[in-house]
Write a structure and sequence with these properties.
The chain has three helices and no strands. With about 60 residues, it is mainly α. It has a single domain (about 5-65), classed as Helix Hairpins, CATH 1.10.287. Belongs to the universal ribosomal protein uL29 family.
């Protein structure tokens, strides 16, 4: 997910998306532990996408104060 897409989302939608992506990451990591993924770099990209979303959400919180 690109930063432009993240910034277009509302704060509530972003918070929901973060939770959904965290659950998805846990599932992918669990699946990878059971049987290796074809592309293990997918885990890295999911973690970075979650970090981008969390960073943008935190920036919004700081700007609203």
């Amino acid at each position: 997910m690109k930063i432009a897409e993240i910034r277009e989302m509302s704060t509530a939608d972003l918070a929901e998306r973060i939770e959904a992506e965290k659950a998805n990451l846990q599932q992918v990591v669990l699946n990878h532990a059971i049987s290796p993924l074809e592309n293990p770099a997918e885990i890295k990209s999911l973690r970075r996408a979650i970090a981008r979303m969390i960073s943008d959400l935190r920036q919004r919180e700081l700007n609203n104060k």
